Amino acid sequence: MTQEEFRTLTEAGTVILDGATGSNMTKAGMEKGVSTELWILEHPDVLMDLQKAYLEAGSQIIYAPTFTCNPCGMKNFGKEKEVYDLNCRLVELSRKAVGDRAYVAGDITTTGKMLEPRGEMSFEELMEIYIEQVKALCDAGVDLIVAETMLSVDETAIAVEAVRQVTDLPMMCSLSVEADGSAYFGGTAWEAVETLQELGANAVGVNCSVGPDQLEGVVRMMKKVAKVPVIAKPNAGMPNITESGEAVYDMEPKAFARHMHKLWEAGASILGGCCGTTPEYIRELSAWFRK
């Protein structure tokens, strides 16, 4: 996918992303404390069935399940030397699931570690981590790159720079923010838009952390400074934690879609769901734009 093709896609109308992966794997029996990526490779049909359901629900872009499949994330499971092979295998699952009926995005994310001088992660280390994963994703044949659930503007800027060192594929970026638009490790959603679009991001927005009912003002602020499409991929409301530690999300699919339509009115044009959402949420969301 070229950047011009991405621009044509986004200018043609609202783009529908997929919904959650991790929370649906948990529902399917994935244990706590394991690597989602490694679990998926052991249970490929679960992931492929989910992504086929997202496709049928209306998703135009499907995220490959490569979220934390980088040297830092895989080191926790003794697989840091296998990042290239793991990413290729995970992308292959998504490609098999959707064929050429949707675009497959290579998914990268935060390491969860703060950058120096506030934390232990150096610019050079983070750049190398992203470059290694992005090279694998590109060789695996993804159509675009997405950096999601990012925790600061600075680390996302490094991700964009890393991607641009490797490829000219389109890149989307979304940060996890509080209801007031502030990112957890620094910066705001609108600062992210201003910074990242100048560095070469093709779309910028928010995902995870809160529900769509809390993001209308944030989206309006992003839209005011945006030269690129604005992304909204929130959770299915706020989670309630059960006695067993399970997160249960409180917003039903129809309510989620209504609130997402308000985010569209506020200026978001690339829409999807994060934690707690299922294909039914994406089906209800897609229905708003087929009326």
TrEMBL record:
Manner of cofactor binding, per the entry note: Binds 1 zinc ion per subunit.
Organism: Candidatus Limivivens merdigallinarum
Metal-binding in keyword set: yes
UniProt KW Zinc keyword: yes
Protein name: Homocysteine S-methyltransferase family protein
GO biological process: methionine biosynthetic process; methylation
Cofactor(s) of this protein: Zn(2+)
The entry's keywords: Metal-binding, Methyltransferase, Transferase, Zinc
